[in-house]
Amino acid sequence: MPVGIFRVCLVVITAIVNHPLLFPKENGTVPENMEEIIQKMKEREVSLRLEQLRLEQEIADQEATQKAVENAAEVVEGSKEEKVRWDMWTALSMVIFLLIELWRQDFQEGNWQDTGGEEDDMAVLGRAFKGVSFPDKAILASFYEKRILGTTGDVARMREMVEGFADDLLEALRSVCNRDADMEVEDCMGVGSMYENWRVRKPFVCDLIVPFAPPEPYCFRCQAWCSSDSSPPDEQGYGTIKVCRADEDVTGCICDKTKLGEDMLCLLHSQDNTTRPSSEMEDLLCFKNTQYLDADQVMKWFQIAVTKAWNRISHKYEFDLSFSLLDSPGALKIKFRSGKSIAFNLTPVVQYENSDVYFISHFPRSGLAAELPSSTHWFLTFAVYERRFIQLVSKTLPANACHVSCLQILSFVHGKQCSLTGPSGLSNYHLKTVMLHLLQAHPSQDWAPEKLEARLQDMLKYLEKCLHEKKLYHFFIGNGKVPAELGFPIIFQRAEPLNLFRPFVLHRDVYRKTVDTFHEMLRNMSALINEYTVHIPLAHTNGIRKESL
Predict the structure, then answer these.
(1) Residue 384 to residues 19, 181, 222: CA-CA distances in angstroms?
(2) Which residues, if any, are the signal sequence (predicted)?
(3) Could you give the domains of the chain?
(4) Burial class for 252, CB neighbours closer than 10 Å (0-12, 13-18, 19+)
(5) Cis ω for the linkage preceding 214 (within 30 of 0)
(6) Residue 307 and residue 102: Cα distance in Å, rounded?
(7) pLDDT confidence band for 129 (50 / 70 / 90)
């Protein structure tokens, strides 16, 4: 537009300058061809007017075009703002929809409300079991005496027999192994429910762990998941075992962690010390092309060694020995000629430093447990410290304390319920963990024998709360209140608490099945206990109640 105005002004100035009357000749005479000049000037004026109109038209067209462009830009900008507002509302609507959907799934899968419209089971537990028929003190005492104590009388004799045979078997195993090349096997130790005196369900199975060590000059360097700054969630509770020479300082030198280059040499370790043939490491039961102990290789070696040991001493016994379960490599079964059998687990483990924490090559898996990250990751077991803690606390409790009785009753009822409705994500180890937490939380006098009913309800409430929150923390890991008398490693006390119910977050179908089984167990508890309880005379029941008052 400014260019057009400039052109119009230029034409007007030219016309004025060229006008003959503005600069007349000096003599002032009128030329003879004045009419002709006037005619040309008129023609020139007409042409200039036409040019002016043309320029004005061009200017108007340019203004219209520019205005149209500006209007289009405003329309586009307005549409963008409207689109942004629309996208924002769309995103907000999607978020609200997802929140509603997640709430709906949690509501359905939690199954807190029954189909009859009654109060939900979780609220029932929080209100002293309203609506749930719970057996009274007398029935529980009779059930424990007749059913629990009556079926566990031969446990001590069975433990003694299994331990004696295991010691003989391991001695034979040492004799058939090459002391210069094979692993060195130590004495076995009893752990678990059979040695903590709360196993109630048949078949009774003794759990024995067998520590082993590599031949000289090698040693194990163990690293737990909490030794590093960060570890993936699926590796929590696990660790790795590196096979090294005893004189090799793997923590003080970086030559095995960094590529030094072809023209550089470690002054602490020669090349012969840091690199070993792959076949040598495989002979040491390591994973292929690594220095890390392979749990699968260890179990194969152990099974072969046990078979050779049994062949050497089988003539001394009048029974047969076999591996009973394919998915449990350490499971053995003694079969007598009479048809009776005794099962026990003999599992190789590696000691963690100088503590009684062990890396276990095979851990009994439940439907809740996740798969191992790899065969070089070993699960850590604190079974020895758990047994010692129960023994330590039992010394401070009243005579005939009810803590073991509560665990036995709950384990029995849960097992019976699972036999009716199928397995759930809960295991006996979860039930024992609940008892350990309550043993630490309640004072000693609360575990008197007459308080069996109250403590059993406390265990159920605690378990219900953990299921609701999907959180049941390991008793030792991250627990800073572990008694100092146990000598528990400080590294595990300072670690982040380990949630045993974490798989419930990942496997919602297992969680739903577990919660359903738990609620069904509560509803059936009286029926399950009465089924295995001898009838108690009314007078005897009243007498017990009066004594408790």
Answers:
(1) 122, 29, 18
(2) 1-15
(3) 125-248+280-531 (3.30.460.90)
(4) exposed
(5) no
(6) 54
(7) low
In contact, 343 and 203? CB cutoff 8 Å: yes
Confidence (pLDDT) at 1: 58
Sequence-ordered list of residues with C-beta below 8 angstroms from that of 102, at least 6 positions apart, any chain: none
Nearest CA among 479, 483, 485, 398 for reference residue 445:
398
Q: How far apart are CA 198 and CA 201, in angstroms?
A: 9
Instruction: Say whether 235 sits in a helix, a strand or coil.
Output: helix
pLDDT tens digits, 377-388: 999 999 999 999
Conformational region of residue 128, where left means phi above 0, alpha means psi within -120 to 50, and beta covers everything else: left
Comparing CA positions, the residue from 231, 212, 366 lying closest to residue 295 is 212
Q: Is the pLDDT of residue 26 over 50?
A: no
Segment 47-60 shows an average pLDDT of 82
Contact present, 438 and 458 (Cβ < 8 Å): yes
Please give the Cα distance from 465 to 472 (Å, whole number): 9
DSSP, collapsed to helix, strand or coil, labels residue 535 as: coil
Rounded to whole angstroms, the maximal C-alpha distance in the chain is: 160
Q: From CA 284, how far away is CA 370, in angstroms rounded?
A: 28
For 183, other C-beta atoms within 10 Å of its C-beta total 21
Query: What DSSP character marks residue 522?
Result: H
Provide the token pair at 513: 């099945």
Q: Where are the beta strands (DSSP E) in 308-385?
A: 319-323, 331-336, 341-351, 358-360, 378-381
Q: How many CB atoms lie within 10 A of CB 111?
A: 16
Q: How far apart, in whole angstroms, are the C-alpha atoms of residue 270 and residue 244?
A: 14
